[in-house]
Amino acid sequence: MISVSGKNWEELYANKRLVEKIKIDYGFNEIQSKIILSRNYTNEEIYLIKNKIELKNPFYSTKDFLLGCQLLEKSLNNHKKILIIGDYDVDGCMATSLFVNFLKRKNAKVNYYIPDRFNDGYGASKNLIIRLIKQFDPGLIIFLDCGTNSHAAVEYIRTRKIHSLIIDHHNTNYPYPESDVFINPKKKVEYSNFDYLCTTFLTYLFIDLYIRLNKEKILLEQELIYVLLATVADVMPIRGINKIISKQILSKFDPNENFIINNFHFI
Fold it and tell me: Which of 9, 28, 173, 213 lies at 20 to 30 Å from 265 by C-alpha?
């Protein structure tokens, strides 16, 4: 088939027997069945197409997330200053906004910094960390959508006896950065099946877990729109729980009523 621009399009081969099985089993048409087959959808993903499933936090018993919550709780109880460093893309900024707003609701001593790509370079460098420690004197540094490859910076933080938490989704190799807690589904870890989540979604689920563990009355659901924004901007696959929030948010979100969410500080 020739496209309008003159390019030749060829339909990918699809096993006709499997296509027919999907059509019969799930009631989809020919095109839908071929798409499902070509994308190797799981039974759960197929079920999601026509059915509504409530989002459940999959990290309730995940060691890294639980240790991160304990670290944050200890820092808050000891009234430590917290510095959040986020990447400068949409994902990093959305994750930083979520965390800063959450900590401000708890009246925590929190500051944030988004590195300037031209002045600070890529990622959180050791020189940047030295400067920020002098400026903010934090007891806990939280890296969002960065930190995975900032080995020298994280090592320096440890020598200063400052705690660190990394929530990231960038590719990583062993040895991992020596932070107190390193949350990244790209590690060889039990939650690596969630490697398709952006940092903002991981951050949202981390905060949600913290709230539930401490039985706090803080509602996060209205901020899921920022998770969806980061998911789309970071070109994450709309599959699994990404698909769940996409359907949930788009069915409820009214841009006229939610153009500015009250009390949400967008950095």
Answer: 213
Give the span between the Cα atoms of 120 and 126, in whole angstroms: 10
Show Cβ contacts of residue 252 under 8 Å, excluding neighbours closer than 6 positions. none
Nearest CA to 138 out of 76, 88, 93 is that of 76
Q: Are 253 and 259 in contact (CB under 8 A)?
A: no
Residue 169 in tokens: 């989704």
Q: What is the pLDDT of residues 156-208, one digit of tens each?
A: 999 999 999 999 999 999 999 999 999 999 999 999 999 999 999 999 999 99
**Is residue 265 very low, low, confident or very high in pLDDT (cuts 50, 70, 90)?**
very low
Q: From residue 186, give the alpha-carbon distance in Å to each of 86, 96, 192.
A: 18, 20, 6
Fold of 63-252: inorganic pyrophosphatase (n-terminal core) (3.90.1640)
Q: Domain-by-domain residue ranges, the chain? A: 1-51, 63-252
Task: Provide the whole-model pTM.
Answer: 0.88
pLDDT in tens, 18-47: 999 999 988 899 988 998 888 888 888 888
- The CA distance from 226 to 152, in Å, is 31
